Amino acid sequence: MSTFPIEPLLHHSSLRNNSKIYRGARGLLPCSLNLSSQFTSKKLHSIGRSVVGSRTSLGLRSSNHRRSVAIRASSSDTAVVETSQSDDVVFKENFSVQRIEKAEGKIYVRLKQVKEDNWELTVGCSLPGKWIIHWGVSYVGDTGSEWDQPPEDMRPPGSIAIKDYAIETPLEKSSEGDSFYEVTINLNLESSVAALNFVLKDEETGAWYQHKGRDFKVPLVDDVPDNGNLIGAKKGFGPIGQVTNIIVKPDEPGADVQEKSSSDLTKERKGLEEFYEEMPISKHVADDNSVSVTARKCPATSKNVVSIETDLPGDVTVHWGVCKNGSKKWEIPAEPYPEETSLFKNKALRTRLQRKDDGNGSFGLFSLDGNLEGLCFVLKLNENTWLNNRGEDFYVPFLTSSSLPVETEAAQVSEKTPKTNQEVSDSAFTNEIITEIRNLAIDISSHKNQKTNVKEVQVNILQEIEKLAAEAYSIFRSTTPTFSEESVLEAEVEKPEIKISSGTGSGFEILCQGFNWESHKSGRWYLELQEKADELASLGFTVLWLPPPTESVSPEGYMPKDLYNLNSRYGTIDELKDTVRKFHKVGIKVLGDAVLNHRCAHFKNQNGVWNLFGGRLNWDDRAVVADDPHFQGRGNKSSGDNFHAAPNIDHSQDFVRKDIKEWLCWMREEVGYDGWRLDFVRGFWGGYVKDYMDASKPYFAVGEYWDSLSYTYGEMDYNQDAHRQRIVDWINATSGAAGAFDVTTKGILHTALQKCEYWRLSDPKGKPPGVVGWWPSRAVTFIENHDTGSTQGHWRFPGGKEMQGYAYILTHPGTPAVFFDHIFSDYHSEIASLLSLRNRQKLHCRSVVNIDKSERDVYAAIIDEKVAMKIGPGHYDPPNGSKNWSVAVEGRDYKVWETS
Amino acid sequence: MEVSVIGNPQARICRSELVYRELGFRFGSEVISGESRNRVSFRSQISKLKEIGIRCSSRSVKCEAIISDQVPFLNSTPKSRSLESVKLFVGLPLDTVSDCYNVNHMKAITAGLKALKLLGVEGIELPIFWGVVEKEAAGKYEWSGYLAVAEIVKKVGLKLHASLSFHGSKDPEIGLPDWVSKIGEAEPGLYFTDRYGNQYHDCLSFAVDDAPVLDGRTPMEVYRGFCESFKSAFSDYMGNTITGITLGMGPDGELRYPSHQHDDKFSGAGEFQCYDKYMLSALKQYAESTGNPLWGLGGPHDAPTYNQQPHSSSFFSDGGSWESQYGDFFLSWYSSLLISHADRVLSVASSAFNGSGVSVCGKLPLLHQWHKLRSQPSELTAGFYSSNGQDRYEAIAEIFAKNSCRMIIPGMDLSDEHQPPESLSSPESLLAHIKTSCKKQGVVVSGQNSSVPVPGGFERIVENLEDENAGIDLFTYQRMGARFFSPEHFHAFAVFVRNMNQFELSSQDQAGENVAESLSIGSGTGAASLQAA
To answer: Could you give the CA distance from residue A214 to residue B410 in angstroms, rounded to a whole number?
Structure first.
């Protein structure tokens, strides 16, 4: 039988070779040829002849294969051609086509008491798919809507932890014949789990299923006052009101609650009852149908008679044309046309197929001139649904006596068969690639929709290339550990020293963080800061970091909402502009704090989730990453870590990047910012930051890449290479367009100073152990900021030892940043002396540091051979030699010398 | 009860959009069929059409198609020679397959290959080591790791060029097969040896080529067996995925004596390697047959050591021994062994792979150091010599021509200006010289870069490829790995490839508009069908 699996969605340029397998009308013996790629047999099978013109359509697959077939079909690539006894048949093929259909089913949730204290929660689904339950728990006493990971003993086998707040467990068929997919979770009622939250995900389609736009929530206790009340209100356990997101009695018409039993209350967990609930769901699945085409030459009239029949349900229209003169250009044949045919814009004909008597599909007969070469067609199911032959038109060749290609073509096919077979054997791999390239194609085609030009498509491909390369790089690099440092150093050398680059400015920058966590409180911070401009300039600062300027949900500014509204708790846009002007006047560059990772939404979507934006950048949920179920983004998966308190922006979207670039440029222009401090850059790929920096051309830029150092048994590891490598990787991803805060150095200073372990301050190669030891020109050293210190104190520098920290960072390479609170404190004069020393001796971000001593109680180093420093209680004197050292600054447990 | 779907299934969007996309193309062809014909007429798709790859490959072709659409419009830029005809290959890491037959960093390689495919690279060079495949026992071949790589390459839709390496490598450390090393312990004469008795363990001496030293078989027989086994193991790939095979001809696969063994940036003259048992006996025999038995007792006594300057002793100086009658005697013999080795290896290869649809190649070294000295000591110690000041490479090129083999010349990224002046080096003139010799003999040249990145390398490669005279149509870029994919390097590489493909990010041309138009016809349908879905 001739079968030709087709899949309309995959473009297949090589197909044409395959599909034109036919035989001549005369001069050839009837033969039968069956090529199948679905089996590993490399031989060509010859099978029995079939009756020509059979009305039976050869549906390839039953509909319950559905979606999974879509991909598998891609591996069968060979046309199976059948010629028959009857001489007048010139072409016969059976194409399989796929239609997207909505399948309906149900999700059910069952809570069951197995033994006294042993309960089971079962979640199931009746639709086929690769179902995953994405779940977490709330503990007694939790207030927010955040999830926690369940205790180990509750996790069914096969569960995977997703970050630190959820578990994913696949749903499985309980037996082969079973049509339900389900998972059973044993509830541990000993633990203080108060409720179980989940959403369902279909891995095949990537779709998330929620309940009323929220998580499914199954409460397990009633002895928490809140819940107890609610349960009381609802009489016993069971579905609880919307207020707490808890499963509610179905209020959608047609939803069908089959059963809801209530058993006796248990004494321990009063109100916990068995229940069973069902909810209807629907899913789009692909349905396979077939189209079989037979062309015959009528000897009497020398006409070609084509019969098309299909088992596609409903009305089917054939949109067709004929081919002449060897081209596949569509032309309109001469009349007469079949019944129910209309002319479409002078370019094609449309013929509606007749329904078959038995109701299963339809058919049509087309009688065409004998001198035509072929018939091209596509199928139209309704205004919006078209089917074609894997990206090509269906093509029915009519043979003329001059071309008798059967033998040669058949030979070609037989050559190809073994190859195809191999491909089948490894379809998993293939599928993966197909998916990836398909995803790429989505990007491309979505661009086309926006009528953007080829350039953007190319940029898109280039970005994909860059991502793949970055992936390859990270794996290769991890297996060649010594590489990174050298390469970075080399890259360093290549850069001309004087050039101003956005990561470093001139190389002589000294940063001042111009606010703390409380600065918003006065409502006039910009004005207050302005008054200090002269003082900051005279201290020797060259760059000032201002707080985030946008409208924000939180007063500190880190939950931005309307990016173009620059009236914040720090002051108005005019005050901001005025402040920037003022600082420029005293020679200080100003950095804006750009929060690009997340943005708070203005509106809720139809599910009640806040993910639609307003203001000038009125993005929709495509701007939100897809892998945080709390915000139901329709973008791509995040290219970094997620920040859970607000929708994370999907920077892979072109429109998002375009808007952000525009915004940054506007801020440069309008406010006068010279550069950026970039918030939470762990949240998205550094390559995008490069893009932003290239567009906004900052004088200086620094990103906050803050994650945890490595500890073993509570003790900080000596070697923090992995930590600084992650930061260096990020800088690298930006191609060095931005520097990064040297969190590694801060962390090591903490332990070294606090525990008197100054030996930590030299790495095994005798260099500084932080980012500054590897890539000094991109390291922004600091000891405190608004998060680590101030009134938040998330990771405060050891008290009383701040000056040792400043003695270190203000003498060492890297670009030092001084925290506002420290400047205007008792340390004022000591910091001022260090700043003036740094400027006087022209130390810069690439200064050379020679570590002279790194022992238990003292660390000493000589920088650029003109400044010597020591920190720690131990004794140190710079070497007596040709140099004449004089003490420049001195304080508690630190001392700095300079050559005179 | 209400359940809602959130997050749109990506695959499905794609599905419907692609439906429209294809339809869009069709309608496009109706409306502006002229333009849409163009879409299939660019360079690489035609070749792809013949080969029914897996879907992925045809789809990658599609991506490529979009890139390549630009080609016709950029052709107008005057170039001495169009680079479009040059096929670009990239070498896989030497340790792609571990000695336990596993594929190392499979994931990285897969991602890397996809990136290269999208970039428009033609194929991949895969180094296959004798010491891995035939590691345990003679005739016991284990191809699985390399087969797995070939399969990935094929799936991604790239071509494959296999380098059969009969040498070992220091970094990463890959030796000769264990069983060969074992024989070598008992019979040290297998290895090249210098005058101090130091052996070079990464390659067998040319003098044992036809000696039955490997359990009664000669190395040539063993190499032939290896080639035959390769051919049958990879029969499914030969001529389609695999388009070329390079035979290892000596140390690091290059046709030369291991005269420079220390990978110093600035090395000395190198050392003659003629002190193993078989070499010495061949030398003795030759000396006796030419009537100078005393010359057959050893190599030149006045040659410098590996890292000594050529002038530190008298052999290579002007009027030194190399120009004497003795010098001619010794160097002729020394280079003749190299030439006959080349002939043996290449004839093994061409007989093994004749008719399997692949091109056979051998690689020469580019011994550019001291090239400006009259004696050219680096070339002499490596075995390149010709009496009476004749062309030292012509005889070699003749052997390549005789066996219909291509010659790979490395170092196409090197330029004179970046060489330390004290090395008296001239990669450019040496390269030009070898190319001329090849042209004279009708040998097709393929290019390679040197393994260490050099400043200005890409520009120099382009210059070499544009050279009308050499007509280089294949270039292999060495080599994939961490450095290759590091942002600094990969970016430069991508620019290089784009230049070769003449693919630039210009959007001002007509093609872009046409494509956009034909697609926008489809987009209405697409959007609608999405809703329907």
So the answer is: 63
